[in-house]
Design goal:
Helix content: 25-40%
Number of helices: 3
Mean pLDDT: 77
Structural class: alpha+beta
Number of strands: 5
Oligomer: single chain
Largest sheet: 5 strands, antiparallel
Length: about 160
């Protein structure tokens, strides 16, 4: 066998080695993250539920999901341990003021359509609604302008 025929197999084995190494590294990081959980930490489960850690055992975690709601989860079901700022932002809607000078992006497009104080003028707002034929004044046509036809000068 020559080296040319073995090259695809060598590349395939190398790619498999790199993928398994990457997966093992991610798995080790997840184990370390779960071991660093302490009571009072905010967490997100792999199912998407946000809660506060109440008690950490060897294989289980007792979570406080709200007033009077305590749930027992397997440690492996914790998807992420959140920082206090991130947990408060997501669960309680409390924004941590990191950038006081930054522009605030609106949640909707209403600020794009509402006139600003600098745009104030005496113009009436444009009504884009459909009007009835009775409301519009009849247009008066004058014969001063030549009528446009499709090229024929005589009526058919």
């Amino acid at each position: 066998m020559s080296l040319v025929t073995l090259l695809p197999f060598i590349v395939l084995i190398g790619a498999m080695f790199l993928m398994t190494r990457s997966a093992k590294k991610k798995q080790q990081q997840a184990i370390e993250m779960r071991n660093q959980m302490q009571p009072g930490s905010g967490v997100r489960t792999i199912g998407g539920m946000y809660a506060t850690v109440k008690e950490v055992n060897e294989d289980t975690v007792l979570l406080d999901a709200g007033p009077g709601v305590e749930l027992l989860f397997a440690k492996n079901s914790i998807g992420a341990v959140l920082s206090d700022d991130e947990y408060n932002r997501i669960v309680h809607g409390i924004e941590h003021d990191l950038k006081t000078d930054a522009d605030i992006v609106p949640d909707d497009a209403s600020s794009l359509t509402e006139p600003d104080a600098s745009d104030a003028s005496d113009d009436k707002p444009v009504d884009l609604g459909k009007k009835d034929a009775d409301d519009e004044p009849a247009e008066v046509k004058t014969d001063d302008e030549p009528k446009k036809t499709d090229g024929d000068t005589e009526a058919k």
